[in-house]
Specification:
It is a single chain. With 306 residues, this protein is mainly beta. The protein folds into 2 domains: 102 residues, Sandwich (Immunoglobulin-like), CATH 2.60.40; 140 residues, Glucose Permease (Domain IIA). Helix content is 14%, strand content 37%. The strands form 5 sheets. Strands 13, 15, 16, 17, 19, 21 and 22 form a 7-stranded antiparallel beta sheet that branches. A 5-stranded mixed beta sheet has the order 3-9-8-5-6, with no helix packed on it. A hairpin with a 5-residue loop joins strand 8 and strand 9. The longest helix has 18 residues. The N terminus is likely disordered. Zinc ion binds next to strand 13.
């Protein structure tokens, strides 16, 4: 038996706790990072580091006299909102895209100072590599190359999705906690999985897959507006919900779509049934979460309390 010094065992135990922590973000933000800025403004972040594909809840506390506080992350405006009108706390949710290069980035916050000039303050967030499975497959070349017609269709789908994610609805359409889209299912897999086909890297798997029987009811994980309800080449029958402030959830491979574009849905409303449409090997629900263009692990938003 190898002798392991006590201190090392203690460290290993701490490491286990650290790994478990992101799943246990409590109701009120426990700030690891607390930055005091000018004009009585302070910035808080649940952590100073975040893995690729994760969510980082943040807060800005600003005196009542300051309005128009804005924030920026990953080259995009990162909306801030108040839970109640008179609250001094603004909440934000930073998404770290699953392919964001590891390194140091700034979450920048700005507001008008007393003399009207813009004031700035920022927090450095270190992005570390996510732990994703890699799948290497060797198949006949003809299966790797889609035919031109399919390729054209997939490209059009992609354009449509980009236009959706480029739109930021400047209001909060959700209320309370985000929920899992299937009843009683809280674990799913494949998020961030890298696939290498014949030595060539393909785009990573951006959602969470939940195996389920075809026909199982799929529910809206939050209230929002249906911005897409149609058949796409890769994701089959697909529903995309806009929850406001750049937060979108996607439900793919459905056997049946139960909503119409532009319809407003309530959290927990049935929006379709599990199926095996699109490019799949069997029935399952693919659930995606995009926050201001960042593709993140949807399970984290359902585990996070409002
Ligand atoms: Zn999937």
């Amino acid at each position: 038996m190898t002798y392991v010094p006590l201190i090392q065992r203690k460290l290993a135990f701490c490491a286990v706790l650290l790994i478990l922590t992101p799943a246990l973000i409590p109701t009120r933000l426990v700030a690891q990072i607390h930055r005091a800025c000018a004009n009585g403004v302070s910035l808080r972040s649940t952590a100073g580091t975040a893995a690729q594909g994760s969510l980082l809840p943040t807060e800005v506390v600003a005196p009542k006299t300051i309005s128009n506080v804005t924030s920026e992350w990953d080259g995009h405006p990162a909306p801030l909102w108040r839970e109640s009108q008179n609250s001094l706390t603004l909440h934000g949710l930073l998404g770290v895209d699953l392919e964001k290069a590891p390194g140091q980035y700034e979450w920048k916050v700005s507001w008008p100072g007393p003399n009207g000039d813009a004031e700035f303050c920022s927090v450095t967030i270190t992005v570390r590599p996510g732990k994703f499975a890699t799948e290497r497959l060797t198949v006949e070349q003809k299966f790797v190359q889609p035919d031109p017609e399919q390729e054209k269709r997939a490209e059009e789908d992609q354009k449509k999705m980009r236009a959706i994610y480029d739109t930021v609805t400047p209001e909060r359409l959700w209320d309370g906690k985000f929920q899992f889209p299937l009843k009683g299912v809280t674990t799913g897999g494949n998020f961030g999985r890298r696939r290498i086909l014949n030595g060539e890297a393909r785009s990573p798997h951006a959602g969470v897959d939940f195996p389920a029987a075809a026909g199982t009811a799929v529910f809206a994980s939050q209230s929002g507006k249906v911005v897409l309800a149609e058949n796409l080449y890769y994701s089959g029958n697909t529903v995309v919900l806009d929850h406001g402030y750049g937060i979108y959830t996607m439900y793919a491979h459905l056997s049946k779509i139960g909503v119409q574009p532009d319809e407003m849905v309530k959290v927990g409303a049935e929006i379709g049934k599990v199926g095996a449409t699109g490019r799949v090997t069997g029935p399952h629900l693919h659930w995606g979460l995009t926050i201001n263009h960042a593709r993140v692990n949807a399970i984290q938003i359902a585990q996070r309390q409002p």
